[in-house]
Amino acid sequence: MLTALSIKNYALIEDININLQPGFTTITGETGAGKSIMLGALGLLLGNRADYGAIRNSDKKCVIEGSFNISNYKLKDFFSAEDLDYESTTIIRREILASGKSRAFVNDTPVNLNALNALGAYLIDIHSQHETLSLGNIDYQFQVIDTIAKNEGVTIEYKQHLKEYRKLQKRAVDLKEEQAQAAKEYDYNLFLLNELQEAKLKPGMQEELEERYEELNNVEELTEQLSAALINVTQEEIGSLETLKEVRTNLAKISTFSANYGSMHERVQSVIIELDDIAEEIAGALEKVEANPEELEATNTKLQLIYNLQKKHAAGSIEELQEIQEELQKKVLASENAESDLSDLNKAIADKEAELKKVANKLHANRKKIIPPFILEAEETLASLGMPNARLKIDLEKQKTFLPNGQDQLSWYLAANKGGEFKEMKKAASGGELSRIMLAVKSILAAQSNLPTIIFDEIDTGVSGDIAQKMGEILQRMGNNMQVIAITHLPQIAGKGNSHFKIFKEDTAETTTTKIKPLETPDRVEELAMMLGGNNISESARAHAKELLSE
Fold first, then answer.
1. Residue 289's pLDDT is what?
2. Which of 265, 356, 391, 434 could form a disulfide with 251 if both were Cys (CB 3.0 to 4.6 A apart)?
3. How far apart are CA 139 and CA 89, in angstroms?
4. Are 355 and 162 in contact (CB under 8 A)?
5. pLDDT on residue 163
6. Is residue 259 within 8 Å of 251, Cβ to Cβ?
7. What is the pLDDT of residues 254-284, one digit of tens each?
8. What pLDDT shows up at residue 447?
9. Which residues contact 67 (CB under 8 A, 6 or more apart)?
10. What is the pTM of this model?
């Protein structure tokens, strides 16, 4: 429950601090006094987006802080998941800086707004005046039924299965489109693949073929030059080898005269050995050189095939052609395995559909089970609120399709008067009737949920007199199980509160400030009397006010 609230530098509020009690608390004040400002501040505390324009004094930061007793609400797992320090008395603080930036803290640990919003959902339900209209909203109707049916875990499971199911369906659609496109391209891709496979491409093949082609295409030139080279090296009269041997003989005769001559002799000997080896290689190469027109033609044909493939596929090397071959292989295999892949995917879709139906059936069964007692309790509550002939009907029809909330179509109908026809909720009820129906729903929800605090912002809109009295009694009973705070204009409801606060404006020479104060019995009598009879309070109004407080 909310035990304390502090608001500084927010809108018309300069600095207020209030301590709140368990049970039923009422807040009253004239129209425009600042009740909505308080709700706005609470909204910020629960993770709503900040508005820099809400800062009262732009030279200072706005600070809103709330203390919550959460010892009985099993929130340790949530705090652990969010990496927050758990405290049985948890303090939430929201700051809006003069620069426009916003910060939030839980027990002095910085948090983002998503985490703050998630935590706030466990702490306070703020029922605004506009929320009453949501009774006609399908999503809200499902939320009410599922809360009473305790379907939270089942709903989460269903939505996860639905997400996976739709993902599989999308994959099936994409796969069919891919297969249709692949089928169109299959024959061409297969032709290209066979063409590359028949070429039997290997790394380095192109360089080897080009080298061999040059040899076969220049046989005469190779023979002529290799023969000339061999003669120049080995011929007895003019060959370089014979000349070097004579030089070696000359140097051998003087090699002992000095180290320099000896070195020259050794170097010439090394050159002779190397040149002799070269001569043998030239002779060997010359023997291998022979004209082979068939091999020349085959080599040229192979090269032209490689050049044509490179041009066709815009490739610069054998390696690039091999990469293209691998991609074509994948495309061809994908086309050939298409039916098997689609069959596997359809099986996965069927399995997921079976899981979805199982969870949807559980949702349907849970909802169907609680609808009759919910209707009975709601009608009994409405009877106590001055709608004795109101009848509620809730249709739950199973659909074949999977919807966001299961396979159910849900419709709420109301017959407000005796003998009246059932009409859709949003069309059948007046403003005052909607307020009473909403209170009946909220009172039932309060008994089912584990929410610490609920705040009603003028739930009494459109009602008065004895109905207001009954509303106050219901709110008071709700306060036995949870903290209930009601902002009200009706003295019949204000008088039922275990505690009572008044919001009012205070004018100074320069500013107008919203303030709030707790009211004890004498002040409560005056406040209720003023609500009953206006500013000119009569003794009869005071007597009536005392009577309201004593009931």
1. 78
2. 265
3. 34
4. no
5. 94
6. no
7. 888 888 888 988 898 898 888 888 888 888 8
8. 77
9. 2, 3, 4, 5, 89, 90, 91
10. 0.66
Query: Exposure of 514 by Cβ count < 10 A (0-12 exposed, 13-18 middle, 19+ buried)?
Result: buried
Output the CA–CA distances (angstroms, integers) from residue 511 to 9, 29, 56, 547, in the order listed.
13, 19, 11, 38
Instruction: Give the model's pLDDT for residue 385.
Output: 87
Q: How far apart are CA 48 and CA 438, in angstroms?
A: 24
pLDDT of residue 291: 77
Token pair listed for 434: 């909607």
Joined tokens for residue 410: 């849900």
Distance of CA 63 to the CA centre of its chain: 30
Average pLDDT estimate for 234-244 = 73
- Residue 63: its H or E element: strand 62-69
CA end-to-end span of the chain, whole Å?
26
DSSP 504-525: EEEE-SS-EEEEEEE--HHHHH
**Cβ 356 vs Cβ 161: under 8 Å:** yes
Q: Give the side-chain half-sphere CA count within 13 A for 86.
A: 14
Percentage of the chain exceeding pLDDT 70? 96
Angle at the Cα of 278 (from 274 to 279), degrees rounded to 5?
115
For 11-61, strand residue ranges (E) read 13-19, 24-28
Distance CA 416, CA 382 (A): 10
Q: What integer pLDDT is reported at residue 133 of this predicted model? A: 67
State phi, psi for 415 to the nearest 5 degrees: -115, 105
DSSP character string of 117-154: HHHHHHHEEEE-GGGGGGGG-HHHHHHHHHHHTT-HHH
Rounded CA gap, 318 and 499, in Å? Answer: 88
Closest CA to 38 of 66, 58, 61: 66
Judge contact between 545 and 491, C-beta under 8 A: yes
> Do 94 and 63 meet the contact criterion of CB atoms below 8 Å apart?
yes
Residue 316 has pLDDT above 90, yes or no: no
SS (H, E, C) 82-103: CCCCCCCEEEEEEEECCCCCEE
**Cβ-proximal residues to 550 (8 Å cutoff; 6+ apart), any chain:** none
Token reading at 412 = 């709420």
Two structure tokens written together for 494? 């204000």
CA 65 to chain centre: 29
Question: What CA–CA distances, in Å, run from 136 to 393, 414, 438, 499?
Answer: 13, 11, 11, 33
Amino acid at 253: K
Contact 499, 518 (CB under 8 A): yes
Q: How far apart are CA 434 and CA 441, in angstroms?
A: 10
Lowest model confidence (mean pLDDT) among 51-60, 70-79, 311-320, 370-379: 51-60
pLDDT of residue 236: 66
Residue 173 half-sphere exposure, CB side, CA atoms within 13 Å?
6
At 338, is the pLDDT very low, low, confident or very high (cuts 50, 70, 90)?
Answer: low
Tokens of 512: 């107008």
Question: From CA 516, how far away is CA 504, in angstroms rounded?
Answer: 6
